[in-house]
Amino acid sequence: MGCHKKTPIQRFILANKNCIAASALILATLTGSPVLAANVAPPPKLAASGKIIYCSDISSPPLEYYNTKSKPVGSDIEIGDAIAGEMGLRPVWKNIPFSGIIPALLAGHCDAIISQLFDKPARRKVIDMVDYMYSSEALLVKRGHDHGIRGLADLSGLKVAVENGTTIADILHKQNKVFQKIGKKPMDIIVFPTDTDALQELVTGQVDAYGTTLETGAYYIKTHPATFAVAGKPFHKILTGVGVRKDNAELAKAIQKAIDNLHKTGKYNKILKRWGISGDNLEQSVLQ
Asked: What is the number of alpha carbons within 13 Å of residue 154 lying toward its C-beta?
């Protein structure tokens, strides 16, 4: 039985899938070191435990993903670690599929969500949000094969891959209702449990486009410029925040204060610059 040599992007996807599978057995991943000094007082329960547990879908570079050493890295990971440091706590990361990330928070499996969580009215009905950056959506295609896509209106009859539970999935389903109303053929939306699974479909040519955040799309274009391109212009710019249970207002306020401290010290801007997303800067945190 012959073997096919994997491309660099396929090796990246495989590495992340292996890490995600491993995290199903070992849910908690410790990052950073215990911090002795606290600039922001955490809630007593967290102070007693000495740690803060984050839920995150660790499959979306450059915000959160696994590196070659199976360690979670990215801008969100660094921001979460820095927030923990401000409170004198040790960060613990739990890898949760995005579609189940809010239920996991509500069930008490973690203290907060940091996972490029868009601040939407429906989410604010069930959790509080501490906004810390902006995000946008984009459509990724194989370079040289954009199928004439310049925006959502050009997706009629095409196959598009997305991750389950994401805003881009909701946007595409709404666009299909528009197609139905005007008598155009709907797109075939193929939903996957992780973002890297959706990307793999584009890599192998099983879909015409892959819907994701602009930040993740830009990362793949930067690391594989000959393979990918953004079709049309980015869209749906939206505030993005840390999710906290509504019965944990003390933690939400502490996280907001910690983020404001990161702005004052310059750590926040350094993190965004290091990961190439300075354009998503939110000058001051907002508690919703």
From this structure: 13
CA-based torsion, 220, 214, 23, 192: positive or negative: negative
In the 8-state DSSP scheme, what is residue 268? H
Q: In terms of domains, do 112 and 255 share one?
A: yes
In a domain, 2, yes or no: no
Our separate counts of H helices and E strands in the chain read 10, 13
Dist CA 110 CA 28 (whole Å) = 10
Q: 253 near 57, Cβ under 8 Å? A: no
- Domain boundary (236, 254, 277) is at 236
Q: Are 226 and 143 in contact (CB under 8 A)?
A: yes
Residue 1 lies in a domain: no
Cis peptide before 97 (omega within 30 of 0): no
Q: What is the pLDDT of residues 42-86, one digit of tens each?
A: 999 999 999 999 999 999 999 999 999 999 999 999 999 999 999
For 30, other C-beta atoms within 10 Å of its C-beta total 13
Asked whether the beta carbons of 65 and 59 are under 8 A apart, the reply is yes
Residue 104 lies inside a defined structural domain of this protein? yes
CB atoms within 10 A of CB 241: 32
- Tokens 């012959």 belong to which residue? 2
The tokens for 270 are 């350094």
Residues 99 and 130 in one domain: yes
Residues with Cβ within 8 Å of residue 160, at least 6 apart in sequence: 139, 172, 187, 188, 189, 190, 207, 208, 209, 210, 211
Same domain, 88 and 227: no
Q: Which helix (H) or strand (E) holds 134?
A: strand 127-142
Q: Tell me: do 112 and 21 sit in the same domain.
A: yes
State the total domains in the chain.
Answer: 2
pLDDT in tens, 186-225: 999 999 999 999 999 999 999 999 999 999 999 999 999 9
Q: Which domain holds residue 189?
A: 136-236
